[in-house]
Amino acid sequence: MSEVPEGVNFAPASRPSARPTATMTLTRDGPEGVEVLLGKRSITMRAFPNYWAFPGGGVSSVDTAAVEYFSQLEGEEAKTIACILREMSEELGLVPAPTGLTSVPLEARLAIVSDKKNWLPMAQNNAFPVSRENIKVLSHRITPPFGPVQFDNAFLHFHAGSSREVPEIDLEPQTEFTEVMWAKPVEILSKWRSYEMKVAPPVVTLLMEIERTLDRFDRNMENAADDIASRLPGRRSILFAHGVEVVPIKTATLPPADHTNAYMVGDPQGDYVLVDPAVRMREDMESLATAIDRHKGTLVAVVFTHSHGDHLADIGLLREAIDAPIWGSEYTSQSVPCDRILVDGDVLQLGNQSWKVMITPGHHPGHVCLLGDAGLIAGDMVAGIGTILIPPQTGNMNEYIEQLKRLKDAKPHLIFPSHGPVIALPEQTIQRYIDHRSARHQRVLDAVLAGTSSVEDIARTAYEDTPDAHPSLAIDQTLSHLLAHQEEGNLTQKNGIWTVQ
């Protein structure tokens, strides 16, 4: 992402209503205490690949039809409960019944996996139980505004009783999970904090709540679930990793993104820094101030990754709530006064966490990334949604590609982008960026070698494989590639005409 180039206009974006989804928190009484079921999502999944998460999915027309048929599914949460009954039968081969969890016959499960529309007629014919009894609604959560689509997720709960009475889970056939595990919340959270497990952010916060509540109810999960469900959900932390909390800030950035991620990075109980708090509106400032007040550590500085407008704050507004020094690169200090100039190789000791400063120009001069055990605070080097622009005036395509290679070599655990959700597969994602930019670089050169000479015509040829690309942005990025070829000695230009050197 970056500031939208001058003269490029986009139609005002409108957000549709949040789509309803459901997830199931399954618990059982294990030999050493309450255990929770998590599944490891396939590396091919679009959302949270290779993450441990609860089973669940989106409410479909099948679920709406089920509500119309089964009287026991009536009520406010009827569709989400119908959804979770269907999803569990598909993903786990289990369904909640009045007596506990029951296995779905293999023939029925195979049919559901092949086409979810088969679920309803089989349920109607009693191929497996359909029961909402003992399913509780713990809370609802609207997903953060990282992308153009948001989800209204119902967190449901079913306690299966003794582990001795819970059927074994067969992952074949499977559409989502490659592994499943039963484990105590405290064990899962311990592995998450040591970066041994990637756990979906909403799962982390719910596990924390379960663990806190179990302590108050003598490890009785049914009573703990009743307590969680009875309390109104407040504003909760969005934890991308241990020591990385995100607060989305509304900004004028490149669509489809319309927010910039501000990050609280460092020791959750000690020193931390606030990265890119790009507040321009009082509402966002108040949200940020609430998150800072909720944090149990000490804010030691504000860090700006670079000086594009969708990353810098209204300093006057920021100072109303935050009295902390500002850190940035030498180039960033030309736009905002910096109390400390960050240089490549600096190590920020933030309580019990260390974060290395990496100066990564290419997208913008003096661009700062932070690398720690949790992963990479990536700024605008990569994005969780949309694309990254390399401005012809201040960017450098050759440097950008070289810095991407450097970031890939660092092998980060996760990537925390400035726009979009956390990136679960860092090395694959960075390599995709390198391959994409390198291929476009070659297409631009090939266009000139074929005799095309104006930027507009070169862009039209180089972007033939991307017909949906915004014409003005295609021209803008083509110019960045042309300038990089000129720097390499491949091309030259005179009076706007590009030719081979």
How does this structure look, described?
The structure is a single chain. This protein has 501 residues and is an alpha+beta fold. 31% of the residues lie in helices and 25% in strands. The protein is built from 13 helices and 23 strands. Strands 1, 2, 3, 4, 7, 8 and 9 form a 7-stranded mixed beta sheet that branches. β5 (94-97) and β6 form a beta hairpin. α6 (201-216) crosses α7 (221-230), α10 (397-409) runs antiparallel to α11 and α11 (426-449) crosses α13. The longest helix has 24 residues, at 426-449. It is globular. The two termini are 31 Å apart. 44% of the residues are buried. The model has no long low-confidence stretch (mean pLDDT 93).
Large-scale geometry: globular
- Give the integer mean of the pLDDT values: 93
- Residue fraction in strands: 25-35%
Number of helices: 13
Question: What is the number of strand segments?
Answer: 23
Brief write-up:
This protein has 13 helices and 23 strands.
Write out key terms for the chains shown.
501 residues, 31% helix, alpha+beta, seven-stranded mixed β-sheet, 23 strands, 13 helices
Question: Could you outline the blueprint of secondary structure elements for this entry?
Answer:
Layout: E1 19-30, E2 33-41, E3 52-53, E4 56-58, H1 61-69, H2 78-91, E5 94-97, E6 100-103, H3 106-114, H4 119-124, E7 136-142, E8 151-162, E9 177-183, H5 185-193, H6 201-216, H7 221-230, E10 238-241, E11 244-250, E12 259-266, E13 271-275, H8 282-294, E14 298-303, H9 315-321, E15 326-328, E16 340-341, E17 347-350, E18 353-359, E19 368-372, E20 375-379, H10 397-409, E21 415-417, H11 426-449, H12 455-462, H13 471-488, E22 491-494, E23 497-500
